[in-house]
Amino acid sequence: MPAIGSNRQVYFYQIKTILQGKYKIDFAINNSINPRTMTKFTKKDQVTSSWYEIDAKNAVVGRLATIISNIIRGKNKTTYTPNMDDGDFVVVKNIEKAKFTGKKFQDKKYYRHTGYPGGIKVTTPEKLSEKKPGETLKLAVKRMLPGGVLGRKQLTKLKIYSGNDHPHSAQNPKVIELDKLNSKNIVRN
Q: What sign has the CA pseudo-torsion 107, 111, 114, 120?
């Protein structure tokens, strides 16, 4: 046993002796720090990012945003660390063809404040998509990321484009087919 007040605390407690048939079983709990059982965290220089491409044609915006936010945060990897930016890049094309379910396209409201008294501004996805087609998806993904510096850095890994062409074909992005993941990801009208 270590001295009282020392930093190294290794305790062995003999809990119970059980007789099962003719075998005697002892249970013991070891509260020591074992380097073999400690969680391995990735370092900054060990992080590798890959690229994914998603076609947003007839995709449901909310479901698309959850898939994108998980990839951007790195939750699809076994090396996920909550306090690090180890996610991948996502390229979304055909954003003007993404859909909302129900009447959300006309009825949903986005609020923002100018910072001045009485400066609250309200807009709908219908009005917002006329000005900036990808802004509704970007807002949905932004709200699924952590607030602060890490979330803002991770949001820069989202690339949104109208139309079928994008300038990131040199990165050879892996194509994710939304309808293969879940049939509810695509609106069928």
A: positive
Residue range(s) defining the domain that contains residue 119: 46-185
**CB 144 within 8 Å of CB 66:** yes
Give the single-character DSSP code of 60: B
What is this structure's pTM? 0.78
Q: Considering its fold, how many domains does the chain have in total?
A: 1
For residue range 96-132, what is the model confidence (pLDDT) as tens digits? 999 999 999 999 999 999 999 999 999 999 999 999 9
Per-residue model confidence as pLDDT tens digits over 38-92: 777 888 898 899 999 999 999 999 999 999 999 999 999 988 888 999 999 999 9
> Do the beta carbons of residue 31 and residue 11 sit within 8 Å?
yes
Tokens of 172: 């050879």
Taken as a whole, the chain contains a residue count of 189
The answer to whether position 7 is within a domain reads: no
Residue 163 lies in a domain: yes
Say which CATH number the domain at 67 has.
Answer: 3.90.1180.10
